[in-house]
Amino acid sequence: RELPAGHPLQVGRTSASPLVTTYQGVRGDSTPVWFMRQAGRSLPEYRDLRVGTEMLDACLNPEMASEITLQPVRRHGVDAAIFFSDIVVPMKLAGVDVSIVPGRGPVLGNPVRTAQDVRDLPTLDEAALAPISEAVALTVAALGDTPLIGFAGAPFTLAAYLVEGGPSKDHLAARTLMHSDPDAWAELMQWTATITGAFLRAQILAGASAAQLFDSWAGALSLADYTSKVAPASALALSRVHGLTYGGDEAGGGAGAAGTRAVGTESAAPGAHGDTATTNPTRTVPIVHFGVGTGELLKAMHDVGADVVGVDYRIPLDEASRRLGGTVTLQGNIDPALLAAPWPVLEAHVLDVLARGKSAPAHVLNLGHGVPPETDPAVLTRLVEFVHAQN
Ligand code: CP3
């Protein structure tokens, strides 16, 4: 379960970065910051590059995906890149008829409604992930010591699209199938976990320094349904990237700042952090788990094997931390709506988020959901500078 020898975490290029050390639970001098959906339509250079290329074609073009991933890092000086791709890419690579309709989202040619539809889903040949590995390799070579975050959609969020056939408000059809045909549902969860876990693992092995699982629509579920019908599949997906180790005294990586302060994870147990006496302890690739409207699910989402929990804007970070027993590193949770507010309003909100984030062991600043496409990119740049100037 060791990362490949040349991996950025393994050679010590990203292991002491503010993002990675904070994800490992160590509070640094300032709070690292990146934005969900930072690569995308808020940037004119993105819109220019995308002219004439469909979304999923852009995702499968390694040079283009890499360039789009780098754009917000160059422009804003964020502490991490997030890989430009989409949660439906592994379905597409498996051969599912899916496209992304601008302004709408993923749309399926043949929605999955019956047990037979589930059985007919194609298997993902892992060799098909080559364009993803290639794009990640190009990207990390260009990023230097800025870490790349790999990501994937969680099984429920993918199933919400597969069963509905497109975006939906309450994901009724998916939640109906969950109860009306539990065996088909279990099989569907197994299928989505397999493809999405393979997608995430390919990104980590090719050089991403952290993993984020997006269960964007899990907030539609009761805690009981989440725990019994969804969480096992999310845990299965994460098991593909769980416990991948780096560092250790021989590897020579990640010494310096992180070495003596870092919390090591010797075991594969999620969140089982404890101080170690080693100067350069073995650590595992950090895993972040995020969902929208998941205030009631935070603990259950941590329990599937996450190190860090991403919090949306509906619940303050101090309350989220309390629900997690005060022991879990948090990421979040600026309300994206305030990006369009006058600067003093946004500034006061950011200071409040940073103050509440102090109740967690460590905190990575982010939005409570993605960057709205109409956001003025200059506001994001100013926000990064402002956050870096605080402590
Ligand atoms: O910057 C980043 O965050 C990295 C790239 C990224 C995209 N999608 C690019 C994208 C990431 C991490 C995602 C994840 C994703 N995709 C999620 C989970 C995160 C979340 O927002 O909750 C979900 C639910 C999807 C499905 C999806 N794909 C939606 C809802 C949309 C928006 C449709 C629209 O046009 O409003 C997409 C398309 C998409 N994914 C775009 C981008 C940049 C827009 C495509 C375009 O430029 O036309």
UniProtKB/TrEMBL annotation:
Domain of life: Bacteria
GO molecular function: uroporphyrinogen decarboxylase activity
Enzyme class: lyase
Segments of this protein annotated with the region Disordered: 253-280
Family the entry assigns: Belongs to the uroporphyrinogen decarboxylase family.
Subunit and partners: Homodimer.
Full protein name: Uroporphyrinogen decarboxylase
UniProt organism field: Subtercola lobariae
UniProt gene name: hemE
